[in-house]
Amino acid sequence: MQCWPYNYYEQWRENNIDSALLHEVDPVPPERLLQLIWLHQRLRRDGLTTTDGRAIRILHPGFWNHESGPDFKNAMIQFGNEMPQVGAVEIDLSQALWRAHGHEGNPSYRQVVLHVVWSGAISDPQRPTLILKPLLDAPLKELATWFAGEGLPKPTAIAGQCAAPLRDLGVASLNELLKQAGQVRLHRKGTQLQARAREAGWEQTLWEFTFAALGYKHNSWPMRRLAELTPWALAGSAHAVVLEARLLGLGNLLLREPKAESESDYLRCLWDAWWRDADAASASILPRESWCMAGLRPANQPARRLALGAGWLSGGKLMTQLENWLLSPISNSELVPSLEDVLAIPSHEFWNYHWTLRSQRFAVAQPLLGSARTTDLAMNIFLPWLWIRAVTGHNASMRRVAEERYFSWPHGQDNSMLKLARQRMTGQTSSKVFKTAAAQQALLQITRDFCDHSNALCENCRFPDMVKSWQVQFSR
Ligand code: SF4
User: Fold this and answer.
1) Which residue pairs from 43-50 have beta carbons closer than 8 angstroms and sit at least 24 positions apart in sequence?
2) What is the reported pTM?
Protein backbone atom coordinates (compact mmCIF):
# COMPACT_ATOMS: atom_id res chain seq x y z
CA MET A 1 0.00 0.00 0.00
CA GLN A 2 1.27 3.48 -0.87
CA CYS A 3 2.16 5.52 2.21
CA TRP A 4 2.44 8.97 0.66
CA PRO A 5 -0.31 11.14 -0.83
CA TYR A 6 -0.98 10.86 -4.56
CA ASN A 7 -0.17 14.01 -6.53
CA TYR A 8 -2.21 15.13 -9.55
CA TYR A 9 0.30 13.77 -12.09
CA GLU A 10 0.40 10.41 -10.34
CA GLN A 11 -3.40 10.15 -10.21
CA TRP A 12 -3.75 11.14 -13.85
CA ARG A 13 -1.04 8.70 -14.86
CA GLU A 14 -2.74 5.79 -13.09
CA ASN A 15 -6.17 6.65 -14.43
CA ASN A 16 -5.21 7.33 -18.01
CA ILE A 17 -2.14 5.60 -19.26
CA ASP A 18 -1.69 2.09 -20.40
CA SER A 19 -4.93 0.77 -18.98
CA ALA A 20 -4.02 -2.58 -20.48
CA LEU A 21 -1.26 -3.03 -17.94
CA LEU A 22 -3.14 -1.55 -15.04
CA HIS A 23 -6.47 -3.22 -15.50
CA GLU A 24 -5.82 -6.49 -17.28
CA VAL A 25 -3.78 -8.09 -14.56
CA ASP A 26 -6.64 -10.24 -13.40
CA PRO A 27 -7.06 -13.18 -13.84
CA VAL A 28 -4.04 -13.40 -16.15
CA PRO A 29 -1.58 -10.58 -16.77
CA PRO A 30 -0.78 -9.38 -20.29
CA GLU A 31 2.38 -10.89 -21.74
CA ARG A 32 4.04 -7.48 -22.02
CA LEU A 33 3.80 -7.09 -18.24
CA LEU A 34 5.56 -10.45 -17.80
CA GLN A 35 8.26 -9.29 -20.22
CA LEU A 36 8.72 -6.06 -18.26
CA ILE A 37 8.92 -8.00 -15.00
CA TRP A 38 11.63 -10.16 -16.54
CA LEU A 39 13.51 -7.22 -18.08
CA HIS A 40 13.68 -5.39 -14.75
CA GLN A 41 14.04 -8.62 -12.76
CA ARG A 42 11.24 -7.68 -10.38
CA LEU A 43 11.67 -11.13 -8.85
CA ARG A 44 12.86 -12.58 -5.61
CA ARG A 45 16.10 -13.53 -7.32
CA ASP A 46 17.56 -15.62 -4.52
CA GLY A 47 17.01 -19.37 -4.54
CA LEU A 48 15.32 -19.66 -7.97
CA THR A 49 14.59 -23.21 -9.15
CA THR A 50 13.24 -24.59 -12.40
CA THR A 51 10.27 -26.96 -12.54
CA ASP A 52 12.70 -29.90 -12.63
CA GLY A 53 14.24 -28.75 -9.35
CA ARG A 54 17.48 -27.23 -10.66
CA ALA A 55 18.84 -24.11 -8.98
CA ILE A 56 19.36 -21.22 -11.39
CA ARG A 57 20.90 -17.78 -11.25
CA ILE A 58 20.01 -15.05 -13.69
CA LEU A 59 23.33 -13.36 -14.45
CA HIS A 60 21.79 -11.19 -17.16
CA PRO A 61 18.11 -11.17 -18.24
CA GLY A 62 19.08 -10.59 -21.89
CA PHE A 63 18.06 -7.90 -24.36
CA TRP A 64 14.41 -7.42 -25.18
CA ASN A 65 13.77 -8.55 -28.74
CA HIS A 66 10.99 -6.62 -30.46
CA GLU A 67 11.37 -8.55 -33.72
CA SER A 68 10.30 -12.11 -34.45
CA GLY A 69 11.91 -14.86 -32.36
CA PRO A 70 12.31 -15.37 -28.62
CA ASP A 71 11.42 -12.48 -26.29
CA PHE A 72 14.94 -11.97 -24.88
CA LYS A 73 18.24 -12.66 -26.57
CA ASN A 74 21.73 -13.14 -25.14
CA ALA A 75 20.55 -13.78 -21.60
CA MET A 76 23.10 -15.37 -19.31
CA ILE A 77 21.82 -18.10 -17.02
CA GLN A 78 23.68 -20.38 -14.66
CA PHE A 79 22.14 -23.76 -13.80
CA GLY A 80 23.42 -25.18 -10.52
CA ASN A 81 27.21 -25.01 -10.54
CA GLU A 82 27.51 -25.47 -14.29
CA MET A 83 29.22 -22.99 -16.56
CA PRO A 84 26.82 -20.12 -17.31
CA GLN A 85 24.98 -20.41 -20.61
CA VAL A 86 24.27 -17.61 -23.04
CA GLY A 87 21.00 -17.98 -24.88
CA ALA A 88 17.46 -16.77 -25.40
CA VAL A 89 14.56 -16.62 -22.96
CA GLU A 90 10.97 -17.02 -24.06
CA ILE A 91 8.19 -15.66 -21.88
CA ASP A 92 4.70 -17.13 -22.15
CA LEU A 93 1.57 -17.19 -20.10
CA SER A 94 1.58 -20.99 -20.06
CA GLN A 95 3.80 -23.89 -20.96
CA ALA A 96 1.28 -25.10 -23.56
CA LEU A 97 1.80 -21.94 -25.63
CA TRP A 98 5.25 -23.18 -26.66
CA ARG A 99 3.63 -25.71 -28.97
CA ALA A 100 0.54 -23.63 -29.70
CA HIS A 101 2.75 -20.78 -31.03
CA GLY A 102 4.74 -23.20 -33.19
CA HIS A 103 8.07 -22.61 -31.41
CA GLU A 104 8.82 -26.34 -31.44
CA GLY A 105 9.92 -26.55 -35.07
CA ASN A 106 11.09 -22.94 -35.41
CA PRO A 107 14.92 -22.70 -35.71
CA SER A 108 14.92 -19.22 -34.07
CA TYR A 109 13.79 -20.85 -30.85
CA ARG A 110 16.59 -23.44 -30.72
CA GLN A 111 18.70 -20.95 -28.80
CA VAL A 112 16.15 -20.75 -25.95
CA VAL A 113 17.83 -21.81 -22.70
CA LEU A 114 14.93 -20.96 -20.42
CA HIS A 115 11.17 -20.93 -20.84
CA VAL A 116 9.57 -18.54 -18.35
CA VAL A 117 5.85 -19.05 -17.82
CA TRP A 118 3.31 -17.32 -15.65
CA SER A 119 1.91 -20.38 -13.85
CA GLY A 120 0.93 -24.01 -13.93
CA ALA A 121 4.02 -25.55 -15.54
CA ILE A 122 5.41 -29.00 -14.94
CA SER A 123 8.88 -30.44 -15.38
CA ASP A 124 9.77 -30.39 -19.09
CA PRO A 125 12.58 -32.68 -20.29
CA GLN A 126 12.98 -30.56 -23.45
CA ARG A 127 13.89 -27.27 -21.79
CA PRO A 128 14.21 -25.76 -18.29
CA THR A 129 11.11 -23.90 -17.21
CA LEU A 130 10.70 -21.24 -14.55
CA ILE A 131 7.33 -20.31 -13.06
CA LEU A 132 7.09 -16.57 -12.50
CA LYS A 133 3.91 -16.14 -10.46
CA PRO A 134 5.26 -17.14 -7.02
CA LEU A 135 8.51 -15.19 -7.54
CA LEU A 136 7.28 -11.59 -7.90
CA ASP A 137 8.90 -9.14 -5.50
CA ALA A 138 5.65 -7.18 -5.11
CA PRO A 139 1.93 -7.82 -5.76
CA LEU A 140 1.06 -7.96 -9.47
CA LYS A 141 -1.18 -4.89 -9.36
CA GLU A 142 1.61 -2.86 -7.73
CA LEU A 143 4.02 -4.00 -10.43
CA ALA A 144 1.52 -3.10 -13.16
CA THR A 145 1.33 0.42 -11.71
CA TRP A 146 5.10 0.62 -11.45
CA PHE A 147 5.52 -0.45 -15.07
CA ALA A 148 2.70 1.60 -16.48
CA GLY A 149 5.19 3.99 -18.04
CA GLU A 150 7.50 1.46 -19.64
CA GLY A 151 7.39 0.96 -23.37
CA LEU A 152 9.48 1.03 -26.48
CA PRO A 153 11.61 4.02 -27.34
CA LYS A 154 10.59 5.77 -30.57
CA PRO A 155 13.25 8.23 -31.66
CA THR A 156 12.17 11.29 -33.55
CA ALA A 157 13.32 14.85 -33.70
CA ILE A 158 10.16 16.78 -34.54
CA ALA A 159 8.24 18.86 -32.03
CA GLY A 160 5.47 16.83 -30.42
CA GLN A 161 1.80 17.69 -30.05
CA CYS A 162 2.36 18.57 -26.41
CA ALA A 163 4.82 21.36 -27.31
CA ALA A 164 2.08 23.95 -27.89
CA PRO A 165 0.01 23.30 -24.73
CA LEU A 166 3.24 23.11 -22.69
CA ARG A 167 4.24 26.51 -24.07
CA ASP A 168 0.91 27.90 -22.93
CA LEU A 169 1.48 26.86 -19.32
CA GLY A 170 2.84 29.61 -17.10
CA VAL A 171 6.26 29.07 -15.54
CA ALA A 172 4.84 28.25 -12.11
CA SER A 173 2.35 25.78 -13.55
CA LEU A 174 4.99 24.08 -15.72
CA ASN A 175 7.37 23.83 -12.77
CA GLU A 176 4.63 22.21 -10.69
CA LEU A 177 3.92 19.69 -13.45
CA LEU A 178 7.62 18.85 -13.67
CA LYS A 179 7.79 18.59 -9.89
CA GLN A 180 4.96 16.07 -9.79
CA ALA A 181 6.40 14.00 -12.63
CA GLY A 182 9.78 14.08 -10.82
CA GLN A 183 8.02 12.94 -7.65
CA VAL A 184 6.57 9.96 -9.51
CA ARG A 185 10.08 9.01 -10.62
CA LEU A 186 11.35 9.23 -7.04
CA HIS A 187 8.45 7.07 -5.85
CA ARG A 188 9.05 4.45 -8.55
CA LYS A 189 12.72 4.17 -7.73
CA GLY A 190 11.94 4.08 -4.01
CA THR A 191 9.40 1.27 -4.34
CA GLN A 192 11.80 -0.77 -6.45
CA LEU A 193 14.46 -0.43 -3.74
CA GLN A 194 11.91 -1.24 -1.07
CA ALA A 195 10.83 -4.42 -2.87
CA ARG A 196 14.42 -5.68 -3.00
CA ALA A 197 15.06 -4.60 0.60
CA ARG A 198 12.20 -6.83 1.75
CA GLU A 199 14.24 -9.78 0.48
CA ALA A 200 17.82 -8.70 0.95
CA GLY A 201 17.80 -5.97 3.64
CA TRP A 202 18.52 -2.27 3.18
CA GLU A 203 22.31 -2.41 3.11
CA GLN A 204 22.57 -5.26 0.63
CA THR A 205 19.99 -3.49 -1.56
CA LEU A 206 22.09 -0.34 -1.45
CA TRP A 207 25.15 -2.27 -2.66
CA GLU A 208 23.27 -4.04 -5.44
CA PHE A 209 21.72 -0.92 -6.91
CA THR A 210 24.87 1.17 -6.42
CA PHE A 211 27.03 -1.39 -8.17
CA ALA A 212 24.46 -1.70 -10.97
CA ALA A 213 24.53 2.09 -11.40
CA LEU A 214 28.33 2.01 -11.52
CA GLY A 215 28.01 -0.46 -14.39
CA TYR A 216 26.26 2.30 -16.29
CA LYS A 217 24.14 1.24 -19.29
CA HIS A 218 26.09 -1.73 -20.59
CA ASN A 219 27.40 -3.47 -17.51
CA SER A 220 24.72 -2.97 -14.90
CA TRP A 221 23.83 -6.69 -14.72
CA PRO A 222 27.30 -8.15 -14.16
CA MET A 223 27.96 -5.37 -11.64
CA ARG A 224 24.72 -6.18 -9.85
CA ARG A 225 25.60 -9.87 -9.80
CA LEU A 226 28.95 -9.03 -8.19
CA ALA A 227 27.14 -6.97 -5.58
CA GLU A 228 24.96 -10.01 -4.84
CA LEU A 229 28.21 -11.86 -4.15
CA THR A 230 29.59 -9.24 -1.74
CA PRO A 231 28.67 -11.28 1.39
CA TRP A 232 31.04 -13.95 0.08
CA ALA A 233 33.66 -11.38 -0.92
CA LEU A 234 33.59 -9.89 2.58
CA ALA A 235 33.92 -13.24 4.38
CA GLY A 236 37.03 -13.35 6.58
CA SER A 237 38.59 -10.11 5.36
CA ALA A 238 37.55 -6.56 4.75
CA HIS A 239 40.95 -5.46 3.48
CA ALA A 240 40.52 -3.29 0.38
CA VAL A 241 43.07 -5.21 -1.72
CA VAL A 242 41.53 -8.59 -0.82
CA LEU A 243 38.05 -7.30 -1.62
CA GLU A 244 39.21 -5.79 -4.86
CA ALA A 245 40.97 -9.03 -5.84
CA ARG A 246 37.83 -11.04 -5.03
CA LEU A 247 35.51 -8.74 -6.96
CA LEU A 248 37.83 -8.61 -9.96
CA GLY A 249 38.40 -12.38 -9.74
CA LEU A 250 34.66 -13.12 -9.50
CA GLY A 251 34.13 -10.76 -12.40
CA ASN A 252 36.77 -12.62 -14.42
CA LEU A 253 38.55 -9.32 -14.96
CA LEU A 254 41.99 -10.31 -13.73
CA LEU A 255 42.71 -11.78 -17.18
CA ARG A 256 45.56 -14.14 -16.34
CA GLU A 257 48.38 -14.63 -13.90
CA PRO A 258 51.06 -12.02 -14.63
CA LYS A 259 54.41 -13.46 -15.64
CA ALA A 260 56.44 -10.81 -17.39
CA GLU A 261 58.80 -8.74 -15.26
CA SER A 262 57.40 -5.57 -16.70
CA GLU A 263 53.87 -6.28 -15.54
CA SER A 264 52.54 -4.22 -12.74
CA ASP A 265 53.38 -5.08 -9.14
CA TYR A 266 49.83 -4.23 -8.33
CA LEU A 267 48.48 -6.88 -10.70
CA ARG A 268 50.73 -9.43 -8.99
CA CYS A 269 49.48 -8.29 -5.62
CA LEU A 270 45.87 -8.84 -6.77
CA TRP A 271 46.74 -12.30 -8.07
CA ASP A 272 48.48 -13.21 -4.82
CA ALA A 273 45.29 -12.27 -2.97
CA TRP A 274 42.98 -14.04 -5.44
CA TRP A 275 44.56 -17.40 -6.18
CA ARG A 276 43.75 -18.76 -2.69
CA ASP A 277 40.03 -18.09 -3.26
CA ALA A 278 39.77 -18.92 -6.92
CA ASP A 279 38.88 -22.61 -6.53
CA ALA A 280 36.25 -22.06 -3.87
CA ALA A 281 34.67 -19.33 -5.98
CA SER A 282 34.87 -21.10 -9.33
CA ALA A 283 31.11 -21.76 -9.63
CA SER A 284 30.36 -18.07 -9.17
CA ILE A 285 32.93 -16.56 -11.54
CA LEU A 286 31.23 -14.57 -14.29
CA PRO A 287 31.98 -15.43 -17.89
CA ARG A 288 34.03 -12.77 -19.69
CA GLU A 289 31.19 -12.47 -22.19
CA SER A 290 28.92 -11.03 -19.52
CA TRP A 291 30.83 -7.72 -19.85
CA CYS A 292 30.33 -5.29 -22.66
CA MET A 293 33.56 -3.35 -23.17
CA ALA A 294 32.96 -2.05 -26.69
CA GLY A 295 32.60 1.70 -26.82
CA LEU A 296 33.05 2.15 -23.05
CA ARG A 297 34.39 5.50 -21.90
CA PRO A 298 37.67 4.97 -20.01
CA ALA A 299 36.20 6.29 -16.75
CA ASN A 300 33.44 3.65 -16.92
CA GLN A 301 35.81 0.68 -17.09
CA PRO A 302 34.28 -1.91 -14.73
CA ALA A 303 37.58 -2.86 -13.04
CA ARG A 304 38.07 0.76 -11.96
CA ARG A 305 34.46 0.98 -10.75
CA LEU A 306 34.90 -2.25 -8.80
CA ALA A 307 38.00 -0.83 -7.11
CA LEU A 308 35.84 2.05 -5.94
CA GLY A 309 33.15 -0.39 -4.73
CA ALA A 310 35.82 -2.39 -2.88
CA GLY A 311 37.00 0.82 -1.21
CA TRP A 312 33.46 1.55 0.02
CA LEU A 313 32.90 -2.03 1.17
CA SER A 314 36.21 -2.09 2.97
CA GLY A 315 35.39 1.16 4.77
CA GLY A 316 32.18 -0.55 5.96
CA LYS A 317 30.44 2.75 6.71
CA LEU A 318 28.76 3.89 3.52
CA MET A 319 25.22 3.33 4.82
CA THR A 320 25.88 5.24 8.06
CA GLN A 321 27.77 7.98 6.24
CA LEU A 322 24.87 8.50 3.85
CA GLU A 323 22.42 8.69 6.75
CA ASN A 324 24.68 11.20 8.57
CA TRP A 325 25.04 13.21 5.38
CA LEU A 326 21.25 13.44 5.15
CA LEU A 327 21.06 14.62 8.75
CA SER A 328 23.75 17.33 8.31
CA PRO A 329 22.64 20.82 7.31
CA ILE A 330 24.04 21.47 3.80
CA SER A 331 23.40 24.40 1.49
CA ASN A 332 22.24 23.70 -2.06
CA SER A 333 25.56 24.82 -3.51
CA GLU A 334 27.36 22.27 -1.33
CA LEU A 335 25.16 19.28 -2.17
CA VAL A 336 27.44 17.77 -4.84
CA PRO A 337 30.81 18.45 -3.12
CA SER A 338 29.49 17.21 0.24
CA LEU A 339 28.36 13.91 -1.30
CA GLU A 340 31.66 13.63 -3.16
CA ASP A 341 33.38 13.85 0.24
CA VAL A 342 31.20 11.04 1.59
CA LEU A 343 32.01 8.87 -1.43
CA ALA A 344 35.74 9.57 -1.52
CA ILE A 345 37.99 6.62 -0.70
CA PRO A 346 41.64 6.92 0.36
CA SER A 347 43.89 7.75 -2.55
CA HIS A 348 44.52 4.61 -4.60
CA GLU A 349 48.10 4.03 -5.68
CA PHE A 350 47.03 2.23 -8.87
CA TRP A 351 43.52 3.25 -9.90
CA ASN A 352 44.00 6.98 -9.48
CA TYR A 353 46.62 6.64 -12.24
CA HIS A 354 45.17 4.00 -14.60
CA TRP A 355 41.96 3.39 -16.57
CA THR A 356 42.52 -0.38 -16.79
CA LEU A 357 44.88 -2.99 -15.35
CA ARG A 358 46.98 -2.83 -18.50
CA SER A 359 46.86 0.85 -19.39
CA GLN A 360 49.72 3.35 -19.17
CA ARG A 361 50.12 5.33 -15.96
CA PHE A 362 48.81 8.93 -16.05
CA ALA A 363 51.05 11.74 -14.98
CA VAL A 364 48.31 13.33 -12.87
CA ALA A 365 45.92 11.48 -10.56
CA GLN A 366 42.29 11.20 -11.76
CA PRO A 367 39.35 10.88 -9.34
CA LEU A 368 37.59 7.51 -9.21
CA LEU A 369 34.21 9.21 -9.34
CA GLY A 370 33.42 12.49 -11.07
CA SER A 371 30.67 14.93 -10.17
CA ALA A 372 28.42 13.79 -13.07
CA ARG A 373 28.42 10.21 -11.75
CA THR A 374 27.93 11.47 -8.19
CA THR A 375 24.77 13.24 -9.39
CA ASP A 376 23.56 10.07 -11.15
CA LEU A 377 24.09 8.05 -7.99
CA ALA A 378 22.39 10.69 -5.83
CA MET A 379 19.29 10.96 -8.05
CA ASN A 380 18.90 7.32 -9.00
CA ILE A 381 20.05 5.46 -5.90
CA PHE A 382 21.06 7.32 -2.75
CA LEU A 383 18.24 9.86 -2.41
CA PRO A 384 15.48 7.36 -3.40
CA TRP A 385 17.02 4.85 -0.95
CA LEU A 386 17.19 7.39 1.90
CA TRP A 387 13.70 8.61 1.03
CA ILE A 388 12.01 5.19 1.02
CA ARG A 389 13.82 4.23 4.24
CA ALA A 390 12.42 7.36 5.85
CA VAL A 391 8.94 6.58 4.46
CA THR A 392 9.13 3.00 5.71
CA GLY A 393 10.41 4.12 9.13
CA HIS A 394 7.75 6.89 9.39
CA ASN A 395 10.54 9.44 9.81
CA ALA A 396 8.88 12.59 8.50
CA SER A 397 11.87 14.92 8.91
CA MET A 398 14.32 12.60 7.07
CA ARG A 399 11.77 12.14 4.34
CA ARG A 400 11.34 15.91 3.98
CA VAL A 401 15.11 16.48 3.77
CA ALA A 402 15.50 13.67 1.19
CA GLU A 403 12.75 15.29 -0.91
CA GLU A 404 14.25 18.77 -0.54
CA ARG A 405 17.65 17.53 -1.69
CA TYR A 406 16.12 15.58 -4.58
CA PHE A 407 14.34 18.69 -5.85
CA SER A 408 17.27 21.07 -5.22
CA TRP A 409 20.00 18.95 -6.80
CA PRO A 410 21.70 20.81 -9.65
CA HIS A 411 21.15 19.36 -13.10
CA GLY A 412 23.33 16.48 -14.23
CA GLN A 413 25.11 15.85 -17.50
CA ASP A 414 23.02 16.35 -20.61
CA ASN A 415 22.56 13.40 -22.96
CA SER A 416 20.95 12.55 -26.27
CA MET A 417 17.79 11.16 -24.65
CA LEU A 418 17.20 14.40 -22.72
CA LYS A 419 17.96 16.49 -25.80
CA LEU A 420 15.47 14.52 -27.88
CA ALA A 421 12.80 14.80 -25.18
CA ARG A 422 13.32 18.56 -24.94
CA GLN A 423 13.17 18.88 -28.71
CA ARG A 424 9.85 17.07 -28.82
CA MET A 425 8.21 18.64 -25.81
CA THR A 426 9.40 22.21 -26.18
CA GLY A 427 10.24 22.35 -29.87
CA GLN A 428 13.82 23.29 -29.03
CA THR A 429 16.86 21.69 -27.45
CA SER A 430 17.57 24.48 -24.94
CA SER A 431 17.85 23.20 -21.38
CA LYS A 432 16.76 26.53 -19.82
CA VAL A 433 13.60 25.12 -18.22
CA PHE A 434 15.27 22.01 -16.90
CA LYS A 435 17.67 23.55 -14.42
CA THR A 436 17.59 20.83 -11.80
CA ALA A 437 18.31 17.12 -11.84
CA ALA A 438 14.69 16.53 -10.71
CA ALA A 439 13.41 18.39 -13.81
CA GLN A 440 15.60 16.11 -15.94
CA GLN A 441 14.12 13.12 -14.12
CA ALA A 442 10.64 14.52 -14.79
CA LEU A 443 11.42 14.75 -18.49
CA LEU A 444 12.50 11.12 -18.53
CA GLN A 445 9.35 10.08 -16.66
CA ILE A 446 7.08 11.88 -19.12
CA THR A 447 8.98 10.23 -21.99
CA ARG A 448 8.46 6.82 -20.40
CA ASP A 449 4.82 7.47 -19.59
CA PHE A 450 3.78 8.97 -22.91
CA CYS A 451 6.32 9.20 -25.77
CA ASP A 452 7.30 5.56 -25.47
CA HIS A 453 3.68 4.53 -26.08
CA SER A 454 3.14 6.67 -29.11
CA ASN A 455 4.96 7.30 -32.38
CA ALA A 456 6.77 10.08 -34.20
CA LEU A 457 3.42 11.76 -34.94
CA CYS A 458 2.29 11.50 -31.29
CA GLU A 459 -0.70 9.39 -32.34
CA ASN A 460 -3.04 8.55 -29.47
CA CYS A 461 -0.80 10.27 -26.93
CA ARG A 462 -2.83 11.55 -23.95
CA PHE A 463 -0.19 13.93 -22.64
CA PRO A 464 -1.47 16.99 -24.56
CA ASP A 465 -4.90 16.32 -22.96
CA MET A 466 -3.28 16.02 -19.60
CA VAL A 467 -1.46 19.34 -20.04
CA LYS A 468 -4.74 21.02 -20.99
CA SER A 469 -6.51 19.54 -17.97
CA TRP A 470 -3.54 20.63 -15.87
CA GLN A 471 -3.99 24.19 -17.08
CA VAL A 472 -7.61 24.15 -15.93
CA GLN A 473 -6.70 22.54 -12.61
CA PHE A 474 -3.97 25.08 -11.82
CA SER A 475 -5.77 28.19 -13.04
CA ARG A 476 -8.49 27.70 -10.44
S1 SF4 B 1 4.33 11.45 -27.73
FE2 SF4 B 1 3.10 12.70 -26.36
S3 SF4 B 1 4.49 13.38 -24.74
FE4 SF4 B 1 5.73 12.64 -26.44
S5 SF4 B 1 6.19 14.45 -27.66
FE6 SF4 B 1 4.33 13.52 -28.52
S7 SF4 B 1 2.64 14.54 -27.49
FE8 SF4 B 1 4.48 14.97 -26.30
Assistant:
1) 43/132, 43/135, 43/136, 43/137, 44/135, 44/136, 44/137, 44/199, 45/199, 45/228, 46/199, 46/200, 48/130, 48/135, 50/79, 50/114, 50/128, 50/129, 50/130
2) 0.80
